[in-house]
Amino acid sequence: MDLSRYQNPEFSRGAPFWKEALWWMARTIFFEPWFPQPSSLRCAVLRAFGAKIGRGVVIRSQVNINFPWRLEIADHVWIGEEVMILSLDRVRIESHVCISQRAFLCTGSHQFKKETFDLVTKPIVIEEGCWIAASAFIGPGVTLRRNTVCAAGAVVMRNAGPDVVLAGNPAVAREN
User: Fold this and answer.
1) Residue 143 belongs to what domain range?
2) Is residue 66 in some structural domain?
3) Can you give the pTM of this predicted structure?
4) Helices 17-30, 39-48: inter-axial angle, 10-degree rounding
């Protein structure tokens, strides 16, 4: 690859620069501090920036969300400390999902075999009842079907479920 040739003309950040700049300030104030703040406040801030947030959502401190206008969270979802949601594309999280500490939902990657290292984005869908344990990685384009569990540190690069436990790198289905 030749990074001097990298261009990204087809990628849209989804909002004007001023909105993104305001989001970075709000994120610094309401999401990055380690000290406790009410989840209801974080949810209200996300809604103000275009995220669709349901009832009973718990968002802990130091959660990193790049573009909230591409985020949809249904009812009674828990998001733990230091979770990263790289929302270069749409992220939909259905009801009764738990995303544990330091998990990474990544909607973007690069075409590393192309000289220009082009950006590729694909949406992520986490269906109802899933648990993504600590430090798990969910890659671009993945759909986790109902009641799927991703064990701690699992690397999930393909659709999975329903009703399976995924573990390892690459993640494979294990017996429950």
Assistant:
1) 15-174
2) yes
3) 0.94
4) 180
Supply 29's token pair. Answer: 């104030």
Is 118:133 a contact under the CB 8 Å cutoff? no
**What does the pLDDT read at residue 2?**
85
pLDDT at 104 over 80: yes
Q: Kindly state whether residue 34 falls inside one of the protein's structural domains.
A: yes
Let me know: does 31 contact 64? Beta carbons within 8 Å: yes
Determine the Cα–Cα distance for residues 50 and 34; give it in Å rounded to an integer: 24
Classify residue 9: in a domain, yes or no.
no
CATH number of domain containing 70: 2.160.10.10
Structural domains of the chain, count:
1
Whose tokens are 């990298």? That residue is 6
| DSSP 8-state symbol, 47 | H
Q: What is the mean pLDDT of residues 117-138?
A: 96
Q: Is residue 169, in this structure, part of any structural domain at all?
A: yes
Q: How confident is the model at residue 32 (pLDDT cuts 50, 70, 90)?
A: confident
